[in-house]
Every structure is written in structure tokens, then in C-alpha cells.
Specification:
Number of strands: 0
Family: Belongs to the G-protein coupled receptor T2R family.
Protein name: Taste receptor type 2
Number of helices: 9
Keywords: G-protein coupled receptor, Membrane, Receptor, Sensory transduction, Taste, Transducer, Transmembrane, Transmembrane helix
Organism: Equus przewalskii
Shape: globular
Largest sheet: none
Membrane topology: Multi-pass membrane protein
Length: 301
């Protein structure tokens, strides 16, 4: 890639990361302060606060990994990848639980399972959050162990001038990491996918009923349903793209990623950044706090 386009994508990636970290940091500050002050939070806000904290760390680790990778500190990248994998797995589980929570609370299905879940899910959120943390720690251990073994093997073989065994170990590590990533992320991704599709179907069905009762009307409720459908569809596409981009990245298609690395990073994290914006704007609590802070800042100026 020529120098100028690459520089443009580097700047876009840094601005995108800064915007994402500011948004998620804002959500953590607002919801975390309320959590500490009231010693409790609504179940949905608990998930959003934990998700925002994990995404803040995810964007920070992505920025740090790219900076270290640019200076070719390979061993440090391996160690930071362990932490990035943990945060990424945790983010996937939290995103899945947020989708499940919205699906259960908002959808209008009359099946007994949904009624039981509506009654149980709010009280189960703290256990789901703790379970997500434990699962993330347990599932990242094999990847961490293989990373440490690989680094030690590469260092040992390089000191003896023999790279054959190290190359084979790297190939095995790549395929092991890919299979482990697919198995670890597939369950929360399927949970997210099914919950989001069910919620889209339920909202679309409800919107059709509203239009049938009041044809031609554009009342605020109808507009809100349309906006919710658009937001859910966008997030479904963007998160599915993020999942596929992780799989492709772990397959090490180096010829493509070496030339368009920074463009790839911009596209990979764009959906998550925009979804954080949607979370801020769709929450009355966060939206009103943001307006208040902005008005106070303008008044001071």
C-alpha cells in the first residue's frame, strides 16, 4: 500500500480507537458511579457497564498490540495477545448476554419458556456476569500455555541456529489457536445471533400489527420500532463481520493483511465502536447525562 493511504488509515484507526475508548469510558464512569452510590443497578445497566469496561480494554489492547507490532517486538506481541484473547472472549460473552436480555425482555413471544425467562433473567444477571468471567479465564489458559511454550521454543531454537522445529511449532500453534478460537467464540456468537434474529422477527411482527391497526400513520412508537430494527440489523451485520474478520486474521492470510493491515483494523473495530455510540444514545440515563455534561462545558466556555 502506498504511504499516503496507509497514513490515512493509521490516523482513522487512532481516531476510531480514541472515540471508542471515550464512549466506553463515559459509560463505565456514569454507570459505575451509580453502582457504587446506590450499591445496585438495573440488570440491563449491569451488563452494559461490564460490556463497556471490556470494550474499553479491548480497544486499548488493540491499539497497544498494533503499536508493539509496528516495532517488531514479537515476543511482547505474543504475551499481549494472551490478554487480548481474554478480553475478546469476555466481550463476546457479555455481548451475547446483552442480546439475550433484550430478546427476553422486549420480544412478544407467548411461549412458556419466554415467560419463565422473563421472570428469571434479571435475577440471574450477576451470576451470568461472573460465569462469563470464569469461562473467559478457563478458556484462555490453553492459548496462554501454547503461547509461552512457543516463545520458549523459538528462543531455544534460535540460539542453536535451527529454525525447523520452531517453524513447525508455529504452524501447529496457528492451527491450534484457530480451532480453539472457533470453539471458544462460536457458542456466544450463536447465542447472540439467535437472540438478535428472534428479536428482529418479533419487532418486525409487532410493527406489522401496528401498521395494520393504524395504516399510514407515522406515530413516535412506529418510528421507534423502525429505528430499533435498523439498529439491530446494523449491529447484527457488523458483529458477524467482526467474527469473520477474527477467523480470517487467525488464518494468517499474510499477503492480504501485510498490505492492508491498517485498513483491516479500521473495518474490524468500526462496528463495535458504532454500537457503543448506539448504546449511549439509546439509553435515556446516559443520553441525559451526556447532554448535561455538554451544556455545562459550553456554559463554562
Amino acid at each position: 500500500m502506498p504511504f499516503s493511504p496507509m497514513l490515512i488509515f493509521v490516523v482513522i484507526f487512532f481516531l476510531e480507537t480514541l472515540a471508542a475508548m471515550l464512549q466506553n469510558g463515559f459509560m463505565v464512569a456514569v454507570l459505575g458511579r451509580e453502582w457504587v452510590r446506590c450499591r445496585t443497578l438495573p440488570a440491563c445497566d449491569m451488563i452494559v457497564a461490564c460490556l463497556a469496561a471490556s470494550r474499553f480494554c479491548l480497544h486499548g489492547m488493540a491499539l497497544l498490540n498494533n503499536l508493539i507490532d509496528s516495532f517488531n517486538f514479537c515476543s511482547k506481541v505474543y504475551y499481549f495477545n494472551i490478554l487480548w484473547n481474554f478480553i475478546n472472549i469476555l466481550t463476546y460473552w457479555l455481548t451475547a448476554w446483552l442480546a439475550v436480555f433484550y430478546c427476553v425482555k422486549i420480544s412478544s413471544f407467548s411461549h412458556p419458556i419466554f415467560f419463565w425467562l422473563k421472570w428469571r433473567i434479571s435475577r440471574s444477571v450477576p451470576r451470568l456476569l461472573l460465569g462469563s468471567l470464569i469461562i473467559s479465564v478457563v478458556t484462555v489458559i490453553p492459548a496462554a500455555a501454547s503461547n509461552v511454550i512457543l516463545i520458549q521454543m523459538i528462543a531455544s531454537q534460535s540460539s542453536h541456529g535451527n529454525h525447523t522445529l520452531a517453524d513447525r511449532a508455529q504452524t501447529f500453534h496457528r492451527y491450534f489457536s484457530l480451532s480453539n478460537l472457533v470453539l471458544v467464540l462460536l457458542i456466544p456468537f450463536l447465542l447472540f445471533l439467535v437472540s438478535t434474529l428472534l428479536l428482529i422477527f418479533s419487532l418486525h411482527q409487532h410493527l406489522g400489527q401496528m401498521r395494520a391497526r393504524r395504516p399510514g400513520s407515522c406515530d413516535p412508537s412506529t418510528q421507534a420500532h423502525i429505528m430499533a430494527l435498523k439498529s439491530l440489523t446494523f449491529f447484527l451485520v457488523s458483529y458477524a463481520s467482526y467474527f469473520l474478520s477474527l477467523i480470517i486474521a487467525f488464518m494468517k492470510i499474510t499477503a492480504l493483511r501485510r498490505q492492508w493491515h491498517w485498513a483491516w483494523e479500521v473495518v474490524t473495530y468500526a462496528g463495535i465502536c458504532l454500537h457503543s455510540s448506539i448504546l449511549v444514545l439509546s439509553s435515556p440515563k446516559l443520553r441525559n447525562t451526556l447532554k448535561t455534561k455538554l451544556w455545562k462545558a459550553l456554559d463554562k466556555r
